Amino acid sequence: VTSTLDGKLQALALDAAGRQLAALGGQNVADAAVLAVDNRSGEVLAYVGNAGEISSARFVDGVRAPRQAGSTLKPFLYELAIEQRLLTAASLLDDSPVNIVTPAGLYVPQNYDRDFKGVVSLRTALSGSLNVPAVRMLTLLGPDLLVERLRALGFDSIREDGEHYGYSLALGSAEVTLWQ
Q1: Which of 1, 16, 44, 135 lies most in the core, judged by the most C-beta atoms within 10 Å?
Q2: Looking at the predicted structure, is the pLDDT value of residue 51 above 90?
Q3: How far is Cα 16 from Cα 60, in angstroms, rounded to an integer?
Q4: What is the pLDDT of residue 102?
C-alpha cells in the first residue's frame, strides 16, 4: 500500500489530539480531528478522523464532516477586502457595538469575550479574531462576494447564496469540512 502519511507525524497528531482532549476534559469537549498537509505537494501527512475509543462519535470522520467554520473564514474575508482595495494590513477598523438591520431583524454581533477594543488595525482584528470588525467588513463587501470567493477556493459545501448566510458568514456560520 502506498501512502503519503508520515508515521511519526501521524503518531504525534494522535498524541496531540488525546492531550488536547484531556486538557479540555472539564469543558464538555469529547472529539478532535487533525489534518496535516504538505503545503507544496498537497500530500496528506497525518489524518486523525476522531479521538477513537474516547470519542463521543467514534464512527464520524471529523476531517470530512461538515461543521460551522467559526473564525477560520476570517482570513479569506480580509484577503478579499485587501484585494478589493478596501483595506491594507495596516488599515484601522472599528471594534465598537453595532446594530445591523437585516430582513430577519436586528443583528447585533458580539466579540467572543463580550468586550470591544475600539479602533484596531486589521492585523489586530485578525490575530485577535475580533467578530465585530469582520462583520462590519462583510457589510461593505456583501455576503455574496465572500460566498463566491469561498466556492472558488474549494469550499464546495457552501451551497447557498450570501443572503442565506447573511452577515454571520463573517463569523463562520457556513458549514465546511476540515478537509476543505
Answers
A1: 135
A2: no
A3: 19
A4: 87
